[in-house]
Design a protein that fits this description.
The complex is a heterodimer. By secondary structure, chain A is mainly β. Chain A is built from no helices and ten strands. In chain A, the strands form two sheets. In chain A, strands 1-3-8-7-6 form a five-stranded antiparallel β-sheet, with no helix packed on it. In chain A, a hairpin with a 4-residue loop joins β7 and β8. Chain A is globular. Chain B is mostly beta strands. Helix content of chain B is 0%, strand content 44%. In chain B, a hairpin with a 5-residue loop joins β6 and β7. Chain B is elongated and about 50 Å long. Classes of the chains: A mainly beta, B mainly beta. Chains A and B meet through β4 and β5 of A and β4, β5 and β9 of B.
Chain lengths: 110, 118
């Protein structure tokens, strides 16, 4: 089964740093995806963590702790265009389907 | 094609009518998924096809919902006797086969079909 928890909404200021947390309980866990979804658009892939630790990709980084069932997405030097929903999706060996968290709606203010 | 294609992009239908939504996945992607997203809500899993295996229908909300897929090609999601609560964006996604290490490469989503039942 799956249990995914992430904050519903967050706000931040342009140029700041924000961390979006996700905790999960997933049987057969084998990695975790983060997707970004702008209002009215389809989700797009941001990152995939399999091993513990931090993976950096430009202004975005994603962290995973398998033993704690915990991940976060770190967004640096926030821009207005980063205003979007961020979806956490743990994956499993048992199936290819992804169950998404409810998403964290991030609003970036000037 | 280059991406996942969904049609129509918008559909307005009268309550009680049947609708068909189409998804054309990326060539070579063996898996295809349907999700529903109500306004301001998260992604709700509906159904998943993997190659020639029996589909995982565990997310279909009622027997008014059904889906078919021809081989590893186009899929059609059908909603019979539509209700107002069916109004949502229906998203299709596809994914390639796992590699020899079992790595999952995640989804590519289509732009969705916005269904409005009036």
């Amino acid at each position: 089964g799956q249990n995914i928890d992430q904050p519903t909404e967050m706000t931040a200021t342009e140029g700041a740093i924000v961390q979006i947390n996700c905790t999960y309980q997933t049987s057969g866990f084998n990695g975790l995806f983060w997707y970004q979804q702008h209002a009215g658009e389809a989700p797009t892939f941001l990152s995939y963590n399999v091993l513990d630790g931090l993976e950096e990709k430009g202004r975005f980084s994603s962290f995973l702790s398998r033993s704690k069932g915990y991940s976060y997405l770190l967004l640096k030097e926030l821009q207005m265009k980063d205003s979007a929903s961020y979806l956490c999706a743990p994956s499993s060996y048992n199936t290819d389907k992804l169950i998404f968290g409810t998403g964290t709606r991030l609003q970036v203010f000037p | 094609g280059a991406g996942v294609s969904q049609s129509p992009s918008n559909k307005v239908t009268e309550k009680g009518k049947d609708v068909e939504l189409r998804c054309d996945p990326i060539s070579g992607h063996t898996a295809l998924y349907w999700y529903r997203q109500r306004l301001g809500q998260g992604l709700e899993f509906l159904i998943y096809f993997q190659g020639n295996s029996a589909p995982d229908k565990s997310g279909l909300p009622s027997d008014r919902f059904s889906a078919e897929r021809t081989g590893e090609s186009v899929s059609t999601l059908t909603i019979q006797r539509t209700q107002q609560e069916d109004s949502a964006v229906y998203l299709c996604a596809s994914s390639p086969p796992r590699d020899s290490y079992g790595a999952n490469y995640g989804y590519t989503f289509g732009s969705g079909t916005r269904l409005t039942v009036v």
